[in-house]
Structures are given as structure tokens and as C-alpha cells.
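Annotators were shown the component list below and the corresponding predicted structure, then asked to write short factual statements about the assembly.
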Amino acid sequence: MLTDDNPLPDGIPEELRRQLEFVIEVDQMKSVIRQTSIATGERRENDAEHSWHLTLMALVFASRAKEPVDLVRVLSMLVVHDLVEIYAGDTPLHIVDDQQEARERDAADQLFPLLPGAQGQQLREAWEEFEAHETPEARFARSLDRMQPLLLEWMNRGVHWLEQGRTSSAARERLKVIDDGSPDLWTAALALIEEAESRGYLLDE
Amino acid sequence: MLTDDNPLPDGIPEELRRQLEFVIEVDQMKSVIRQTSIATGERRENDAEHSWHLTLMALVFASRAKEPVDLVRVLSMLVVHDLVEIYAGDTPLHIVDDQQEARERDAADQLFPLLPGAQGQQLREAWEEFEAHETPEARFARSLDRMQPLLLEWMNRGVHWLEQGRTSSAARERLKVIDDGSPDLWTAALALIEEAESRGYLLDE
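Structure shown to annotators:
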């Protein structure tokens, strides 16, 4: 995003300069548009807004994680989990293809080395931890990542669900991993899905 | 933002319901428009995007804090620091008036009690800690909060500075608190301000 005719000024030490350039590069998160609309329905949300919303949810729901979690790791994962979409684009859950993993790995190879060595590796590991969902922190983070669009879709009365012809049983199937990170949130998700079906925000079978 | 004809469904326990309602309420952060434009210059950024960008900066610059910081406190403060603007609006630094503090306190009185007791108080305390800038964490968080718009304004070649007739010495004065939280970032800020003046992004005296 920095251009040759407007580079950061000389006199900033190399390592600091690379960090600042990274911070500017990832500003592009604000232009990666997601499938879900903001609660007012006025427009779709972007990855930066979504990521912030998840960190706020982590603070609110931390004590509802299935297992005790290290909050700084949860927050770090949520802050970086969508960065690769700057280069790989947002791939909605319902159209994930078999190239997506490779696309996102290529994006990570391009993005994280912009940072000075060890730090780039550290942020990459947070992203990989999130993707692998093998730790309590990653599973909790994933629960938030699935719960948030459900809440927004509720606020939007299922507008995108209906566009996609989504059924309530498909929604339950897709969202059941919420239970792995937070049984409490899964209880709420089930109540929302059931009521969404009876209100016609989701199709019944 | 929840309306009487589309409330959260029954069957969600009271405390969890209040947390979910809070999460939906603060979605309005995505519609609080700031003075600064995103790096591409296409549009102004909003508070949700700004807050996310600061948490990313906290991860990148943590080791550059003036004093050792507890990262989870820094991140928590950054996530909540602008929530009161949902009700109080964004008050740009150059037009802060003497009612602003009262307006933001009223907003906090309205917002944080939406959460169940102790939790609302906890998030309020994070906001108050940020506002008081008396702890190393709060001073570092404030440094990030001042550094981020400087980077964006650099990317926008001073468009809003010039609109406001900002001089380089006024910019230095306004931003010097960056030094209290991160001398390294202050070094970079000074280089940016100096170069901004010579490029005509800031007025000289």
C-alpha cells in the first residue's frame, strides 16, 4: 500500500520501519468485505470490524469458555485470524473449495515475513493455532467466530440465509463446533436457530 | 438496537442474554465515523476498525513499550476505549470541549450497566484506566491511539491536516504523549512529522 512516491521517511531504524510498513499493509483488512451485514443491515461488515467484534466478545464471554483459556492468546488469535484474507479474499463457509487452504498458506507466506523474523513467525503461529483448533484457546476463538455472524444474521432477520436457501438443520450442522469451545454459547445458538426457523429466517426441512 | 418485534428468543438464561444484547448493542461502533481516512483514502474509518487496528499494533509493538506491560490489559483497554462514543460521538482532539468528559461519563453510565454487574464494572474500569493514563499499560495504549491516525494521515498525504490548517509544531505538541508510552514510536512520529512538513502535508510555522 505504501508507494514509491510516498515511502516512510529515512531515519526510522530498519526493524521499526518494517513493523510500521506491516501496520500500514494490514489496513487493507478494512476493505475485505464479508458475507454478513452489520446489525443495522445498512451494509456488509469488513474483516477489521469483525475482528474487533470478536475481541470484544472474548472479553465478555471469557468465563464461558469450555476449558480455562489464556486470554492473551485468545485475543492475539482473534486479532490476526483473518489477516491472510487481505491476499486470499474472504471465503464464505458455504463455498470453501479445496484450493482455499493452499491460497491462505500462500497468503501467509507473503504477509507474515513482512515483519522482522521472529515476530512474523510468532504471528503466523497464532494464525496456525487458530486454524488447527486443537487448543482450548483456538476452540473458544472459533466459537466466537461462528457465534458473531449468527447474531448479526439474527439482527438481519436471516436475509443472507434466505438468499442462500439455508435450512435450520444445515445451520445447526455448520455451527455445532460452537459447542466445542463454549457449551453456553451453543445453548444460545440453538435457541436462536430454533426461533429463526419458526420466524422464517431459516428454511425448515 | 434490538427491537421489540425481534428480541432474542426466550430460553436463553438471563445473564447470558444480557451479554448477548450488549454484544449486539456495541455493533454500533461500526457506524461511529472518525476524522481519519483509511489508508486508501476511499472513506473515513470507524471506531470498530480503528480499535482493531490498535490491537494489532499492540501485538506488533509490545516490546517497544516504555515500561514492561501486561498485554492482556493493554488489549482489553484498546478493545473498549472508544465504546462510549456509541452514545457520546467521536470528539476529534482539536475540538474537545469542556462538556466532553461529562458526555462520555454519561455514556459510560448508560452503556456498561447493560452487562451483568461485576462484568460491566470490570469493562468500565478498563475504560477509566485508559482515560486516566496513569499506568504503563494505559500510556502505551494511548501512544498507539495517537500513532495510528498519524500513519493514516501520512498515507493520505495530510489531507485532513491541511483542511484544518495544522502546523508541524501543533502536530508535535499534540502527539508528544506518544513518548510517554513508547520512545521508539515517538522517534518514528518525529521523523514522520518532519518529513510531512517538508512534503507540505503539514504547514510550517
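Statements collected:
1. The mean pLDDT of chain A is 96.
2. Chain A touches chain B through 62 residues (CB under 8 Å).
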